TrEMBL record:
Native source organism of the sequence: Nitratidesulfovibrio vulgaris (strain ATCC 29579 / DSM 644 / CCUG 34227 / NCIMB 8303 / VKM B-1760 / Hildenborough)
Database matches in Gene3D superfamilies: HUPs, Riboflavin kinase-like
SMART domains: Flavokinase
Cited Pfam families: FAD_syn (PF06574), Flavokinase (PF01687)
Alphabetical UniProt keywords: ATP-binding, FAD, Flavoprotein, FMN, Kinase, Multifunctional enzyme, Nucleotide-binding, Nucleotidyltransferase, Transferase
MF-aspect GO terms: ATP binding; FMN adenylyltransferase activity; riboflavin kinase activity
Transferase keyword on record: yes
Name assigned to this protein: Riboflavin biosynthesis protein
Encoding gene per record: ribF
Keyword Transcription regulation included in the entry's annotation: no
Length: 314
């Protein structure tokens, strides 16, 4: 997959035209996958490249400010997922207030027509672009008739009687309902980060060494203890991950600590990823290390049972 952040960076041959879909694609969930799959299908039928147009930073970060929800997937992860879906070109445009102020026709003409030589445009059920979000599917179809491209609007994807959306997924993650997220994402929710030095209690005091993760700009599940899969250098390991403030020890800083089962390598400074499978329990203040260790043993035993189930496999 070719990645470009400006139209001028594109080296892919677009002379035959392109099939394009546009969106933020935060999470690259089942609804997004339907859009991208249809875009690739139409591109293949017409012998032209498939293109995903997305934005960085997320438009809400520019239009609303810093007090916006964390991302479901950071920008690097989003590009990884798009590549895994077989997209030919990902155009990640820098989102600015100037871009937001463009009239729909100006965006269509400069980016889609002159920049990408669009012949087919696939959009979601609630899509709109341009100043005042005036560029809905009806307006885009009119512009398509003027500039020579076709527009197809897809219906929403329904899972468990509700529309799949980034907002729904974000709400489930925040509530700790990570098991319910999998059918919406078509994968378990993953947090990535660098392993950093923590308080040193896990192995020394408790007998359960932990990898303390410094997360990227991604949404964290509700504080609690989770059964997880941990990817270390491409290898998967069972894990138990705690998100919280370590109430037994009175810590103030929120931490993400993973005990990787049957693992004893030094991975300080490594980037790892943690896939959240199921919430085991909420954070709890224990009377002391002995009671905490007993609960950790129970957490590990329960996590093994959960992760050994076929439906919990990655």
């Amino acid at each position: 997959m070719e990645i470009a952040r400006e139209l001028q960076e594109i080296t892919l041959d677009l002379s035959r035209g392109t099939c394009v879909t546009i969106g933020n694609f935060d999470g690259v969930h089942q609804g997004h996958r339907k859009l991208i799959g249809r875009t690739r299908q139409k591109a293949a039928l017409r012998g032209m490249p498939s293109v995903v147009v997305t934005f960085c930073p997320h438009p809400l970060r520019v239009l609303v400010g810093p007090h916006t929800p964390p991302l479901i997937t950071d920008y690097d992860k989003k590009l990884d997922l798009l590549e895994g879906l077989g997209v030919d070109l990902a155009l990640m445009l820098r989102f600015t207030r100037e871009l937001a102020a463009l009239e729909p026709e100006d965006f269509v003409r400069t980016v889609l027509v002159e920049g990408l030589n669009v012949r087919e445009l696939v959009v979601g059920y609630d899509f709109s672009l341009g100043k005042g979000r005036k560029g809905n599917a009806e307006v885009l179809a009119q512009l398509g008739a003027r500039y020579g491209f076709e527009v197809e609007q897809l219906d929403p994807v329904i899972v468990n009687d509700a529309v799949v959306s980034s907002t729904r997924i974000r709400d489930l993650i925040r509530a700790g309902e990570v098991w319910e997220v999998r059918p919406l994402l078509d994968r378990f929710y993953v947090v990535r980060g660098k392993v950093v030095h923590g308080m040193g209690r896990g192995g020394r005091l408790l007998g359960f060494p932990t990898a303390n993760i410094e997360p990227r700009d991604e949404l964290l599940p509700m504080p609690g203890v989770y059964a997880t899969w941990v990817n270390v250098d491409g290898a998967l390991h069972r894990g138990v991950t705690s998100i919280g403030h370590n109430p037994t020890f009175g810590d103030e800083r929120l931490s993400v600590e993973t005990h990787i089962l049957d693992f004893d390598r030094d991975i300080y400074g490594w980037d790892i990823s943690v896939a959240f499978v199921q919430r085991l329990r909420e954070p709890k203040r224990f009377s002391g290390p002995e009671e905490l260790v007993a609960h950790i043993r129970h957490d590990v035993s329960l996590a093994r049972q959960i992760l050994d189930a076929p439906e919990a496999r990655l």
